[in-house]
Amino acid sequence: MFDLSLAIGHHLLIFALFGVLVAELVLVRSSLDQSTIIRTARIDLWYGITAGLIVVVGFTRAIFAAKGWNYYEHNIFFWAKIATFVLVALLSAAPTMRYLRWQRAGTVPSESEISLVRRFLWAEVALFALLPIFAAAMARGYGEIIF
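The structure assignment produced for this chain is given below.
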């Protein structure tokens, strides 16, 4: 039951994170106003919280659940998934910093600033698509590195 609970939690958190990312992409557009900036910054806070929970639940699952750490530590798709998740997290820093700056400034950002943030968000979405691909390969035993 522990393994199932962790798997369900991990998957629900991943879907939630993607939902938050899509919400940001929908909100950050040319008609951005101050109230939307504040709303987006609050939503972005949930992005960070959810990402942190994914890491905690994911590593708890990898270490203590049914397959155990030995299954994951030698799997290239596991490490590709971790690296992709870290890259998405690094890309998310730029929009977060912009939201906070826009919120403090109390003014509407320029079209070029909005466009830049949207490029970061789209890059996150593109990389995010790799996560279930790596997870599916890993879960089926592909990617075993033999030393």
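Interim note for the steering committee: The chain has one domain: 2-139. The chain has a mean pLDDT of 94.
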